Amino acid sequence: MIQAYYFSPTGTTQSIVKTIATTIDNDSKFHNITKPENRTSVPEFTPDDLIIFGVPVYAGRVPNVLKTYLGKIVGGGARGVAIVVYGNRHYDDALIELTDILTSCGITVVAAAAFIGQHSFSEILAKGRPDQADIAIAKAFAEDLKSTNPKTPVTPPGNRPYRSYYRPKDEHGEPVNFKDIRPVKSADCIQCGHCETLCPVEGICIKCCACVKQCPVGARIFTDLQFIAHKIELEVQFSERKEPEFWTAGHTDEK
């Protein structure tokens, strides 16, 4: 059985994971682990399962909010596909970290891929991605998995030990801490409560921007000037289009 899991506050990772899974088998079973209440039960698998795990890249790593949940997985000898989706800067060590987490749980990771999705807190960085070209690549990747049925583990690029989380710097080159920065309600807020139902965390804001991008009246905004400057810096520095990369036992597409 193919079981697909994704953490996807703004839908980009979901789009890639669903494309890959349904291309392999239209009867794939999906698990949306974005909301906290969907991360309470412990997944258990068997050797007959092919597991697709998709997560966004936050600061170059697997989102911290998922670490406890992922660490409880009972792999049971299943095969796995590790997928990360990043906002056109870089995936850094997120893919090797996800691969290691799944491997430590008893899943043999037979394929891995890094795709691009619109950056969580930008309206222009990788705008509209994954786009049709990305979806076509995801389908081709899935067709390759379907035809080759890989069983040999792969090791995507990355560092061990992992690099530190990506941290932006101010105009003096000093690291900036945005831990306590979160979007605020503007005067346009209609108190619908939609933002609260969308939030995938119960605590510190992870800047996923689900509340910003899905507010029906655009009333969630960032006001911190350093954070806004960082967003603009990313939009300028990483405007050149990045392309997906993928690894299987018989095929490597590394840029």
Level-2 CATH architecture of the largest domain: 3-Layer(aba) Sandwich
Shape: globular
The CATH top-level class label of the largest domain: Alpha Beta
| Share of helical residues | 25-40%
Order of helices and strands: EHEEHEHEHEHHEHEE
Low-confidence parts lasting 5 or more residues at pLDDT below 50?
Answer: none
Question: Short summary of the structure?
Answer:
The protein is of the alpha/beta class. It is 27% helix and 17% strand.
Output the keywords:
two-stranded antiparallel sheet, 9 strands, seven-stranded mixed β-sheet, alpha/beta, 255 residues, Rossmann fold, 2 domains
Written overview of the protein:
With 255 residues, the protein is of the alpha/beta class. The chain is 27% helix and 17% strand. It has a seven-stranded mixed β-sheet with strand order 2-1-3-4-5-8-9, with helices on both faces. Strands 6-7 form a two-stranded antiparallel sheet. The radius of gyration is 18 Å and the shape is globular. The protein starts with a strand and ends with a strand. The mean pLDDT is 95.
